[in-house]
Amino acid sequence: MSSPPLTEIAAAKINLALHVRGKRPDGRHDLETIFAFCTDGDRLTAELADDLSLTVTGPFAAMLDDGADNLVHRAAAALAAEARVGKGVRLTLDKRLPVASGIGGGSADAAAALRLLTSLWGIDPLLAQRIAPTLGSDVPACLLSMTARGEGAGDALTLVDAGIAGSPILLINPRLPLSTAAVFGGWDGVDRGPLGNWRDGRNDLEAPARALVPEIGRVLDWLGVREGAELVRMSGSGATCFALFDSEEARDTAAAACPPQWWHLASVLR
Ligand SMILES: C[C@@](CO)(OP(=O)(O)O)[C@H](O)COP(=O)(O)OP(=O)(O)OC[C@H]1O[C@@H](n2ccc(N)nc2=O)[C@H](O)[C@@H]1O
Ligand SMILES: Nc1ncnc2c1ncn2[C@@H]1O[C@H](COP(=O)(O)OP(=O)(O)O)[C@@H](O)[C@H]1O
């Protein structure tokens, strides 16, 4: 069986603001967040084949298992089962985003797999929407990959126009992976109030993330004094932080000065 390979970008996700409002009966947390997406991310390629296989390449491949636990593998298997189709596909994930870093990671990859396979296998996109929340709280937002307000566990979505499409952004990660569950586990349980205008908002996971990885404070301080940086914040459960810049030149100047021990990505918001 042969067909031209299809490629999908698994766009890096950021949380422009993230308010934690309380703990849910299911153990997860109620959030109010604004999701936004970069034009860059991981790349997933798919070709029809007899069996389901996944190869992981790219700068962060060594940090990831390419077996059945990989979210790309899980997304493909779940979609095939839901659609009652054979799960023959050869997938290649070019892992460019750091793993466990608060910018979607596996969620964006799983969502990219759902979009790609919906098209490759010619199945109803509603099936992908049904599966997405079962793969992770962030997967529905990543499936859309459009600016959206997330409530509930982060999977109750409303599209919004935050007026930030085209904004230059610099992402920095101190190359220290951070477990999402561990960061939520360190939240102090204090509801600091609802999310109104995201610019005036906060990331309530910053304090517990900084307690685990103090280097986050150094990244935020470094970004905060870059010329042209208009808003500096941590994304998700960290440790990636971002700055929105007033020009691509200012972003590129900051990117060129980024300490080499930190990972960085100069991008633009979708
Ligand atoms: C914090 C956020 C913000 O966008 O992003 P990341 O830091 O992962 O990028 C998300 O809520 C992460 O979503 P996702 O990465 O899909 O998390 P899941 O796999 O569903 O859950 C991983 C673990 O995080 C905790 N969790 C997740 C979501 C939520 N609303 N409350 C939680 O307490 C739970 O301990 C759960 O076991
Ligand atoms: N394709 C994938 N990319 C990244 N992480 C994955 C993938 N598949 C499974 N994982 C697992 O998911 C975890 C990252 O999830 P999470 O902490 O939610 O990431 P992030 O904080 O970047 O959103 C990793 O520890 C990794 O073991």
UniProtKB/TrEMBL annotation:
Residues annotated as domain GHMP kinase N-terminal: 70-144
Keyword Transferase recorded: yes
Catalytic activity: 4-CDP-2-C-methyl-D-erythritol + ATP = 4-CDP-2-C-methyl-D-erythritol 2-phosphate + ADP + H(+)
This protein's pathway: Isoprenoid biosynthesis; isopentenyl diphosphate biosynthesis via DXP pathway; isopentenyl diphosphate from 1-deoxy-D-xylulose 5-phosphate: step 3/6
Binding site for ATP: P98, V99, A100, S101, G102, I103, G104, G105, G106, S107, A108
EC number(s) per entry: 2.7.1.148
Record bears the keyword Electron transport: no
Active-site residue list: K13, D138
Keywords per UniProt: ATP-binding, Isoprene biosynthesis, Kinase, Nucleotide-binding, Transferase
Family statement: Belongs to the GHMP kinase family. IspE subfamily.
Function: Catalyzes the phosphorylation of the position 2 hydroxy group of 4-diphosphocytidyl-2C-methyl-D-erythritol.
PANTHER family: 4-DIPHOSPHOCYTIDYL-2-C-METHYL-D-ERYTHRITOL KINASE, CHLOROPLASTIC
Protein name: 4-diphosphocytidyl-2-C-methyl-D-erythritol kinase
Species name: Sphingomonas kaistensis
Taxonomic placement: Bacteria, Pseudomonadati, Pseudomonadota, Alphaproteobacteria, Sphingomonadales
